[in-house]
Amino acid sequence: MVQALLKHPDWRFASILVEKCKVNPTIQDQAAFYPKFASMVLRFVFKGRVRVGTNQVLIYTDTLPVANQRRAVEASIKKACHADLGPIPFCVFHHPRGSNAWLQVVDYCSWAVFRRWEKKDDRTYVQLRPRLADTELDITARGDGTTYY
């Protein structure tokens, strides 16, 4: 799988790390959690990486099952895009991940990052490193170290 992905030269991935057990319970609810961290990962991806001459940005998410969660996530995505893309137009789409090849690539890259941090197995991560835009941003390392559960 990795070799097939690496044959395509014009893509990068980035990720943020969020240890849910270290996230304050006031934002562990899905309606607060996903909007907060979706906008963080977008800012991380956009910062300094939008190419000169970009005329549109397309953002795809997996289908979100809960309507109020979908609205909250979409609102946070749009807010981050307006702040970080300036005049560049953007569109947000919600597709089942099985219907979008790039969402499957995101899943695979996320799995590799998960394996690296949770299982201490970095084999796939090391193979994908040429497509890594930047080292993961560990959001929960910035907190006070409290583990809530």
Characteristic key phrases:
149 residues; mainly alpha; two-stranded parallel ribbon; two-stranded parallel sheet; 44% helix; globular
C-alpha end-to-end distance: 36 Å
Computed structural class:
mainly alpha
Weakly predicted, low-confidence segments:
none
What is the share of helical residues?
Answer: 40-55%
Short overview:
The chain has five helices and four strands, in the order αβαβαβααβ.
Describe the structure.
The chain is built from five helices and four strands, in the order αβαβαβααβ. The strands form two sheets. It has a two-stranded parallel ribbon. It has one domain (2-142). With 149 residues, the chain is mainly alpha-helical. α3 links the parallel β2 and β3. Helices cover 44% and strands 11% of the residues. The N and C termini lie far apart (36 Å).
Topology of this protein?
Layout: H1 2-6, E1 16-17, H2 30-46, E2 57-62, H3 67-85, E3 90-95, H4 101-118, H5 123-128, E4 137-138
Parallel strand pairs: 1-4, 2-3
Helix pairs in contact: 2-3
